[in-house]
Amino acid sequence: MTQILYAGIDVSKDKLDVAIASDREKILLNSTFNNSLSGFKILPKWIKKHFKKC
User: By three-state DSSP, how is residue 44 classified?
Assistant: First the structure.
């Protein structure tokens, strides 16, 4: 069975607030990253860490 997930990213000058939610509107994960090159590099690693099939 495939689960549909949704990602939301709130972008501000200094940070990225990221949330992953299920199709039942339940927030599964959330985190904050710097709005910088280092934050952009960490974000996909964070996603892959929590969702191995990505």
Answer: helix
The dihedrals phi and psi of 13, each to the nearest 5 degrees, come to -60, -40
Q: Which two tokens stand for residue 23?
A: 């199709």
Cβ atoms of 22 and 3 within 8 Å: the answer is yes
What is the distance between the alpha carbons of residues 25 and 30, in angstroms, rounded to a whole number? 13
Task: Give, in degrees to the nearest 5, the angle at Cα 52 between 13 and 1.
Answer: 115
The predicted-structure confidence for 24-35, as pLDDT tens digits, reads as follows: 779 999 999 999
Identify residue 54 by its one-letter amino acid code. Answer: C
- CB count within 10 Å of CB 18 equals 19
| Strand ordering across the sheet containing 5-11 | 5-11, 15-22, 27-34
